[in-house]
User: What shape does this take?
Amino acid sequence: MLRRLLLFLTRDYSCRRFVARVTEYLEGTMPAKERKRVERHLRECGDCERYLAQMRTTIELTGRLRARDVDALPADARARLLEAFERSCGS
Amino acid sequence: MAVDYSDDAQLVEALRAGDEAAFAWLLDRYGPTMKRVARSYVASDAAADEVVQETWMAVITGIDRFEQRSSVKTWIMRILANIARTKGAREHRTVPFASLEAELADDTPAVAPDRFHGNRTGGWPDHWSRPPLPWDDEPAERLVSEETLETIAECIAELPPNQRAVVTLRDVEGWESHEVCNALDISETNQRVLLHRARSRIRQALERKLLGDP
Assistant: This one.
């Protein structure tokens, strides 16, 4: 009986729906009522809990790209822009 | 007292007064972000460099007229996004440029539909048939390795322009959603849809890379 109830609670919210709405959940823009249903689903569904954890890891890893210094302004371009700035202020 | 360039009012005043150090600070602070966002819309590094240059020239000539209704960084990014979009559209004169509308109209699901049960596959409809396997508990050396980060960078490089710009600003640069909406001139809802698709694709790329195609 208890097991059936747990199954019912888990299945009240589908995994497919959770995956489609995970960003709303993470952004905090999900309506409170739905958020409650999601949280109940997550307590019972290890797969969706894992999916959520992986989305968080994805975001964290993506943030590490910032430290990669591959996009710095080339030195000559930087010098030219500083010159242009100086000229425009002198005029 | 030293000027605090991270304070917008002081920064703008210094720029208007011709303070070269203020402009140098601005170049170093936002140059890399601008290049990354520009690259979302145009096809080559060289074209992105041109977009960044043009943006800086517009900043130099426009600073006196800047009304400070938004932050300096949002103002600069708005200029950049406009220049980059125009250039991107021009580059794509022969092939259709992925407009925001086209990107939003594409309703390919974030996760392949065959990973969920259908009505006749035996399991509970719309619940996982092939659930996500663990890859996020890989040893840290592997998870944060240069190879993993390259996988993410490659995935981002293949995203449609608007998804790429949004995920770059939000998750690479760490901007707030309202700043991104303002800079790219898109609604909160559209921003979230684009972010969702981009993040879902990156998660999938990581899954493929770390597990081998499941």
Summary: The two ends of chain A are 84 Å apart (CA to CA). The mean pLDDT of chain A is 88. The CA atoms of residues 3 and 25 of chain A lie 27 Å apart.
